[in-house]
Sequence to fold (310 residues):
Amino acid sequence: MNLSKAAFAAIALLSAGVGHTRPVSWPGGWTAIGELDPMMGSALLHYTPNRHWSAGARITRMREAEWTMAGAQATWLAKRWNMPGAQANLYFAGLAGGAWEDGGPVRPAGFAEVQADWENRRVMLMGMARLTHADSIETADMQMARIGWAPYAGAYGDVHLWLFGQVMRDSGSRDRVQPALVARIFYRTLLLEAGLTDRGGLILNSTLRF
Amino acid sequence: MKSLKILAFAASLALASATFAAGAESVTVKVNGLVCDFCARSIEATMKKRPDVSGVHVDLDKGEVHLRLKADAKLDDPTLTKLIVDSGYAVTGIERKPLS
Fold:
């Protein structure tokens, strides 16, 4: 990794954003993912040794609940369906590490996650569920579903635009269901998302592959 | 004598050029699952590591990957298929044409 790529990755992480994109890259590729929504902010840097796996480090700040979790994350592409004009994927991910409340001791923590998606050139469906446990701090489950539409089918090398409707529920956020609208643009290996929840909460996501 | 040397040089250049053109290839790989530019970057990243690949283009509409191979390329169909599969896609056909 040269210096310019590292700087680019750092910018992508700091600019926040979950990608909600394919969490496994090409063999030998690095990916920097950032997420920010009203409930939490997160940064993940991972490496993909082969097409089935990625491994990296994530730090997540639960903004509402005011605790932090950090650890090593592995993601497994369990199954990919390559079809004429469409693709679908099934992923499992897990994190093991520690969590701490502000000023408190570090406790064992982790999460388990399943994610599935289907897309063609103009329509995308995605769903995920995550169970998070932070010893003596919190145990929470989260589900999210997305449906996306591309206003145009851009060619390879174009700037691409997608518009998503998203619904998220998190037991760590008083079981609140948060609908949101999210716009995604990407160009080559940089992807950015911006959105608003029904209560005006900001969503900023970013993914950079290098 | 000088004209003869120029003629010989021109002939050798033409021969070298013809040899190169006969060896260089254009390859079209038909691929399933090729729907997303962001994800298809994996193909470009993988192919650019190959010294015998001089050009890569992805056609999302047709579901095709277009490669230009250098004259001395040793990228056979099984290796090419493995590279595309490792990039995350399924190969349904490979067509090769000599570059003129």
The radius of gyration of chain B is 18 Å. The interface with chain A takes residues 31-42, 45-46, 49, 57-61, 63, 85-90, 92 of chain B (CB under 8 Å). Confidence is low (pLDDT under 50) at residues 9-22 of chain B.
